[in-house]
Write a structure and sequence with these properties.
alpha/beta, 15 helices, seven-stranded parallel β-sheet, 31% helix, 22% strand
């Protein structure tokens, strides 16, 4: 029987995603015929659900959350205050002397961690017997673990028999694609770490992975090997929570709109990049009168009593449930599963810049349960909703609803920015947005705006589309905004906007959503539709908030069209769950048995 060594040195307690990930992969490995051995942090106590999956060796004494890592994601997460990569040795001053001493301590801490991780590997693998076909999988690593592992492997030739798999979970760069070129210091530092580590173990079979495709794009810029997105496992316990098939019958529709507040769930621990401390209190204040005090929605959040939300506004006497529900963090495994399953909608307004490339495990669990979600634009979370939303918008523009089609030359433009040759529309963030207008005809109650990306042609740039509607007197009567990104399959992007009956002029403005640089699109088209706008949702499966100010609109959209979003989310859950079966993770790992993804 082949061995499957599963190492997560950051696993310290049950109830965390580290524990859930290890449990999912270990169970799948056992089902596929492997003997599993699990490595954890030394503080990890007894846990029946993991101990029963194989021998657990609690030998590692540090976690991957090190502020001395060069990875931007770890520096952000650990709130590292000093960037040692930008030390200017040419300046001679007391400040630089202090910084020099700090940098020396920083290097010593890195060296100590690398030696400690190598010793941890020695303690973990020391008594093991290796054979061909064995695999070792490190679930969450940085450049520090890579160098520590290389130090161990270089002194143990018998380790050549194994296939070594390393997954990089944290972003290499800060922010989105246009910001990468400004962070070459990070790229060079990480690249040198890889070069030094791989030079020590030129004959080992190493395979590199990331937890998202966007993250793989970042690491592949290093040109130190090939990084592949590894299918991320979601526990089967989160699937199949809806017993009945979803249909369009009146009885089913009523079932999807319970006579109780819709439960907006904010799962997980409070961390800075998850945004709970920044957006939730303002949101509660904004929707109090319209949605919370009236019993339309309630908030469920994993938050301690010390950081409770302020509820200083009156509550209707008829309100049967408390408007905010607090749960502990972490919960027990079963309690957390029930918490996710009991959600009506997941509210995950994470820091979209921090989560542009980083995966959010909670989103995967909610989608597996068939729960609609509200997520921020310009993030990995919103990209997971892109395909079902675009498919929904395309279905709206079918022939039965279509009134007319407008191409770029049929629209009016602001004289400060006109289309370029070939119908290319160029814009930046503030200085030169692209603006165009058209006059809707009677009976046109919606429009689908579609376009192809022209430049940059790689994902990572987003168009902020602002639509304003004016009446016959020129008064602004409606304003809406959506943020739309690339499609990796190179299909066109699209967005749906409702039109009011009294609208006489529609203004459309393109901006670069997140970066003050030029971007361009082409083949801009507008399809005007005749449909009932009150019965027409703008998306499917979930709702993408353009920014924090858009959150009240998103919640209003969810409440009005909850049956649609819940229905499409449950349909989407079938394909999502299949893509995230733990067996796919292990199958992907062992499929590399005959090849090395590391460049020669």
């Amino acid at each position: 029987m082949a061995n499957f060594f599963l190492i997560d040195h950051s696993l310290q307690q049950p109830g965390e995603h580290h524990a859930d990930y290890v449990r999912c992969v270990a169970e799948a490995a056992i089902d596929m015929g492997f003997k599993t051995t699990i490595g954890t942090h030394s503080r990890f106590g007894r846990c029946d659900s993991i101990d029963q999956l194989g021998e657990v060796r609690r030998v590692f004494r540090q976690t991957t959350y090190q502020k001395d890592s060069y990875l931007a994601g770890l520096r952000h997460l650990t709130r590292a205050k000093t960037n040692f990569l930008r030390y200017d040795s040419k300046k001679r001053s007391l400040a630089n002397l202090t910084r020099f001493l700090r940098e020396r301590r920083h290097r010593k801490r890195r060296e100590t961690f690398i030696r400690g991780f190598a010793k941890g590997c020695q303690r973990f693998f020391g008594s093991s017997l290796f054979s061909d076909g064995d695999h070792a999988f490190f679930t969450t690593v940085s450049e520090l673990e890579l160098m520590g592992l290389a130090a161990y492997l270089s002194n143990h030739p018998r380790s050549l028999q194994l296939h070594w798999h390393l997954q990089f979970h944290f972003n290499l760069f800060d922010g989105r694609t246009p910001e990468y070129d400004e962070q070459q210091d990070v790229a060079l530092a990480i690249q040198s770490c890889f070069d030094a580590a791989l030079a020590r173990i030129p004959y080992h079979s190493l395979h590199f992975y990331t937890t998202s495709e966007t993250l793989a794009d970042q690491y592949n810029r290093l040109q130190v090997g090939t990084f592949d997105e590894l299918p991320y496992p979601v526990s089967p316990a989160f699937g199949k929570v809806f017993a009945d098939p979803i249909g369009d019958s009146k009885s089913q529709s009523n079932k999807m709109k319970p006579d109780r507040p819709l439960r907006l769930t904010c799962p997980g621990g409070i961390r800075r990049e998850k945004g709970h401390l920044d957006y939730l209190q303002p949101l509660v204040d904004q929707i109090w009168t319209t949605h919370i005090a009236t019993g339309k929605v309630k908030i469920a959040v994993q938050r301690s009593a010390k950081s409770k939300l302020e509820l200083n506004q009156p509550i209707e006497a008829s309100l049967a449930e408390a408007p905010v529900e607090y749960l502990a963090h972490p919960l027990t495994d079963q309690a957390y599963i029930e918490f996710i399953k009991s959600a009506d909608c997941g509210l995950l307004f994470y820091d979209s810049r921090a989560y542009f490339s980083r995966r959010a495990g909670v989103l995967g669990e909610l989608l597996s349960c068939g729960k609609p979600v509200i997520v921020p634009s310009g993030s990995w979370l919103s990209e997971q909703l892109q395909r079902p939303i675009f498919q929904h918008v395309r279905r709206l523009a079918i022939q039965d609803n279509l009134v007319r089609k407008l191409d770029t030359h049929e629209l009016k433009f602001d004289s400060n920015n006109v289309p370029l040759p070939g119908g290319v529309v160029s814009f930046d963030q503030f200085r030169h947005p692209f603006e165009m207008t058209f006059e809707p005809a009677q009976g046109e109650t919606g429009m689908v705006l579609s376009f192809d990306w022209h430049w940059p042609d790689a994902p990572g740039v987003f168009a902020r589309i602002e639509v304003e509607q004016n009446d016959a007197r020129g008064n602004l009567i409606c304003a809406a905004c959506q943020v739309v990104g690339h499609r990796r399959e190179f299909a066109d992007s699209a967005a749906f906007f409702r039109l009011l009956p009294e609208t006489r002029k529609v203004g459309i403005r393109f901006r670069n959503a997140f970066h003050d640089s030029n971007a361009s699109v082409k083949n801009v088209k507008i399809a005007t539709l005749s449909l009932n706008p009150d019965d027409t949702p703008v998306g499917a499966v979930g709702i993408v908030a353009a920014d924090q100010n858009d959150l009240p609109n998103c919640i209003d959209e969810l409440v009005k069209h909850y049956h649609h979003y819940r229905t499409t989310a449950e349909e989407f859950a079938c394909s999502w769950s299949k893509q995230h079966q733990p067996r796919r993770t292990v199958a992907h790992l062992i499929s590399t048995e005959e090849q090395s993804l590391r460049a020669a």
